[in-house]
Amino acid sequence: NPAFFRSIFWVVPLLLVLSPVNSSSCTMGNKTTEIRVKYENILSYDINELVNMSAEYRDRCCRKPRNSKVFFCNDTQEIESLQSMACNMLRFFHKQKISKDFRWKAALVSCGTLQVLQCKCERQKKEK
Amino acid sequence: VLRMTRMSTVLSIFVLFLHTTFGESGCTSVDGDGTFGDDEPDNFDINCFSQLEFKDSYSSLTCNFMEPPPDNTNYTLALCNKEDSNYVCFNMEKREDAYFLQFTDILSNKDICMDSETKRRVCRSLVVTDMVKPEVPFNVNVTYQKEANEYLIHYSTPHSWKKYLQDKLIHQIAYRQEEGTWKTIESPYLQVKLLGKNLENDASYEVKVRSQPNGDFFRGTWSEWSASKSFRTTREQNFMENYSNVVLVILSILGFMLSVVMIVLIGTFWENRIKPAVWPNLPDHKKTLEQLCKKPKNNFDISFNPENFGYVHIHKVDDIQAKTEQESFLQPSNAPETNLPEKFRSGSDLKMIPAMTDKSNPNLSVTYGGIWPNEALHKILGTSQTTVTEGNCGSSTYEVCHSIGVPLHDDGFNHSSTPSLGPSGQPGLEPVNGDTMPTGEMRSPNNEEAYVTMSSFYKVQ
């Protein structure tokens, strides 16, 4: 009876609608103190190392900037800005033209940032 | 159909309820919130500690069972991360009686899970930054500071050149006398001082160090003790000994500086002052006389070398006679040089001395014993030339001879005789120093006049 299947499968869309959806928003919220402490004691050192490593590649800019996005750190949107920057930096992990150490350090900083902010990225599984 | 629809509705609601209850997939927690607090109690009594940056950027986790598990039971410890909807676990490596795992992420919250063949997995939350065990300090050294009577203990830690625990450790220094009880000191710095007055004199001590996170962010346990360092305290120093040592040092420094200054002064003033005072130079006669005598304005030769005066006419004197000449004998008439009143004494040959005839000083009077040449004699006297021959005393000759008071014919005065010089053998010229001779008076020749010949020329002004 075709009606049987229609009566069953309409539940799936309902489940999809009613099931708790994990949104890509960060969950740290207003826990700025915890964010600051983790940044000062752990994340800041890794960021400094990444900056020092970036100095070696200062003259090696992209010849063909494609879809370059400018990240603005707007007021009350700092966490979202950092999330977007970290998620984009994770894309470099698979770029073979960049040195392995630099890619590894960039990934470490990105993942550490997302961890501190309790954020997620789209297609984060693949990046990680 | 309606009945089937109602069944499906109930079923969907039930499934939805279960989905909400269980949350993420893979969760086996009874609580349903992902934690294992109310799970089955287990023998999950393990002790773990983490070591940050133990190798490059990797951190490590080391766990061991507080109570050894029963034999014939294989246990597996795993470190799990909750990522998105997944629960990613990494099995720890078993090393003897401990389980070891290295990782890079120290920010995320982790779980330590135990798996066994007989029991289901049991997990427990774990914060890596709250169980940090620093690395062992090393290079413990003891230095005695004599002036302050203190013992400086300094050491090193590998975290000084790492990033997370740098300046975030507290160090504990333990010291004891030989086989005594340990005493401890805590300091956040890499050196401490022990006062000598608090220690026994001339005793052997032992010291060791360990570290721990200071608790601001990182917490954990003490590290292992460092290697012990032994040292011996000094004997009691006498105050006078110290004072005498200080005085000795000061005196040594002053003596050295004084010797250096003396050497410099001696080297500086040796030639100019010291040597002339110690070994005075004997005066040089020539130089002394040259300094005493005034240099003539004109180009006069200042020399005692007779060869330099070859151009000078030298009037030889046979002998020296008494001063009995007439005053009127010498009359300056023709020759310009005859302005000088001259007196001759004997019949010896004479030569004009041009040097004497200084026109600037016509008052020069010279007395000498010499032989005038005939030409000069006549020139002076204004008479015709007559030769004063031997034994030939003419009128003119007589006058001449008489004028000079020379006995002509008696007592053996001989004009032709070779001029016999005075006792000094030199013609005597009276030195005149700008003063004229007393007229009509002839000074008796003496030895002093015989020596004053060349120098008198200098005084003719």
UniProtKB/TrEMBL annotation, chain A:
GO terms for biological process: immune response. Gene3D superfamilies: 1.20.1250.50. One of its GO terms (molecular function) is interleukin-7 receptor binding. Its main location: secreted. It is found in: Secreted. Transmembrane segments: none annotated. GO terms for cellular component: extracellular space. Keywords: Cytokine, Disulfide bond, Glycoprotein, Growth factor, Secreted, Signal. InterPro entries: IL-7, IL7_sf. Residues 1-23 form the signal peptide. Pfam families: IL7 (PF01415). Belongs to the IL-7/IL-9 family. This is Interleukin-7. It comes from Columbina picui (Picui ground-dove). The lineage of its organism: Eukaryota, Metazoa, Chordata, Craniata, Vertebrata. The gene is Il7.
Automatic annotation (TrEMBL), chain B:
It is a single-pass type I membrane protein. InterPro entries: FN3_7, FN3_dom, FN3_sf, Hempt_rcpt_S_F1_CS, Ig-like_fold. The keyword Cell wall biogenesis/degradation does not apply. It is found in: Membrane. Residues 414-423 have a biased composition (Polar residues). Pfam families: FN3_7 (PF18447). PROSITE patterns: FN3, HEMATOPO_REC_S_F1. The keyword Membrane applies. Residues 1-23 form the signal peptide. The chain crosses the membrane at residues 246-270. One of its GO terms (cellular component) is external side of plasma membrane. Keywords: Disulfide bond, Glycoprotein, Membrane, Phosphoprotein, Receptor, Signal, Transmembrane, Transmembrane helix, Ubl conjugation. One of its GO terms (molecular function) is cytokine receptor activity. Residues 136-236 form the Fibronectin type-III domain. GO terms for biological process: hemopoiesis; positive regulation of receptor signaling pathway via JAK-STAT. Its main location: membrane. The IL7 receptor is a heterodimer of IL7R and IL2RG. The TSLP receptor is a heterodimer of CRLF2 and IL7R. Interacts with CD53. Belongs to the type I cytokine receptor family. Type 4 subfamily. Receptor for interleukin-7. Also acts as a receptor for thymic stromal lymphopoietin (TSLP). This is Interleukin-7 receptor subunit alpha. It comes from Columbina picui. The gene is Il7r.
